[in-house]
Design a protein that fits this description.
Layout (H helix, E strand, L loop, with lengths): L2 E8 L12 H10 L3 E2 L5 E2 L1 H8 L9 H25 L3 E6 L14 E4 L3 E3 L11 H10 L6 E3 L2 H13 L5 E3 L12 H10 L7 E6 L10 H17 L5 E7 L9 H13 L2 H5 L13 H11 L4 E10 L6 E9 L3
Parallel strand pairs: 1-10, 4-9, 4-10, 5-8
Antiparallel strand pairs: 1-12, 2-3, 5-9, 6-7, 11-12
Helix pairs in contact: 5-7, 7-10
């Protein structure tokens, strides 16, 4: 059988691709965002959010505090990269969401497996006229150009077949358009660029629709898919060493530290009931990427978390930003 040798989970916020001094650029974007999502399902403008909660996070959003947390995030990412290097997997399964980088409203699968041998990234962050911070983020996301990364066709195909046999209607993605900018997005490019350290490790992208109704799976369904994924890997005849990585999350664009800590605790304690019961209103916009973690948790709940970290990155006084989470299953 294939051996799951490691599990990782990490946020992939643009902040990780920028210097701390540039984080204020994202603060300005928050203040201009007319749809900031709250975990109770409401959408507010920044001035409405500030009027409701007050400048609760004014100290936490000061430049020097952002600089301190940026350093801690880099240390956490280095720890994940160290664990991946030590585990030496033959293939990495990355659970991530597509944000109109490959799919669109006319073709939006709930869950897809890419079994292409050549994985091509979108160049949407490298187009002329983009703001400087977007161009910088594009390099960190491998979205400044159409980069080609190695896939793993054999395992990808067997995952599609095995998951369908297990009752998971997995969409099959065999390749990418040669013309146009469609390709894999930041959820996948960031993992390769930041954690692979230049190694050409074959990747199988698992694309989960977390963002776009009407076919966003529930948390319970995501957990089920993760368990089915593990069963397929355990039935796999090869002796491949497999790592599973959840890319994205946690809460954003309004940080909900209570929600994030509840998720992190449930992961450590293997509390599947809590993970499966996360309500839809708490999973809108960027916070929906928590579902990537839930799917990975279903696949990895036979392993213990050896290390985890949580850093709420408040970039405005009203508390907009990202809940940056990091976790390692099967390592430390």
């Amino acid at each position: 059988m294939a051996h799951i040798v490691l599990g990782l989970a990490t946020a992939h916020t643009p902040l990780f691709t920028l210097e701390a001094k540039d984080w204020q650029l994202r603060s300005a974007a928050d203040m201009a965002n007319p749809r900031l999502n709250l975990s109770d399902g409401r959408w507010l403008k920044y001035d409405q959010l500030l009027a409701e909660v007050g400048p609760l996070h004014a100290e936490a959003s000061r430049p020097e505090e952002l600089q301190r947390k940026a350093a801690l995030c880099e240390q956490a990412l280095d720890r994940l990269a160290d664990a991946l290097e030590a585990a030496a997997p033959d293939v990495v399964l990355v659970v991530g969401d597509d944000q109109s980088e490959l799919f669109g409203a006319n073709n939006q699968p709930a869950f897809a497996v890419c079994h292409a041998d050549r994985l091509v990234t979108s160049d949407a962050f490298g187009r002329p006229g983009s703001p400087d911070w977007v161009l910088k983020a594009g390099k960190g996301y491998l979205m400044d150009a159409r980069h080609v990364l190695p896939g793993h066709t054999e395992l990808g195909l067997r995952l599609v077949q095995g998951l369908v046999d297990a009752g998971v209607d997995a969409t099959s993605v065999a390749g990418f358009p040669e013309d146009g900018g469609q390709g894999l997005g930041h959820a996948f490019g960031f993992i390769s660029q930041r954690l692979f350290r230049g190694r050409a490790i074959p990747m199988v992208p698992l694309l989960l629709n977390t963002y776009y109704p009407p076919n966003v799976p529930t948390a319970a369904r995501c957990h089920d898919i993760g368990r089915a994924l593990r069963a397929v890997l355990q039935a796999e005849s090869s002796a491949l060493r497999v790592a599973i990585v959840a890319s994205g999350g946690l809460s954003h664009f309004v940080v909900d530290a209570e929600l994030d800590l509840r998720v992190m605790r449930a992961l450590r304690e293997k509390d599947a009931a809590t993970l499966r019961a996360i309500p839809r209103p708490a999973l809108n916009s960027g916070s929906s990427e928590i579902l990537n973690w839930v799917l990975a948790a279903g696949a990895l709940d036979h392993m213990d978390i050896g290390w985890s970290e949580y850093l709420p990155l408040y970039r405005t006084p009203a508390g907009t930003g990202v809940g940056a989470g990091f976790a390692i299953w099967g390592g430390s």
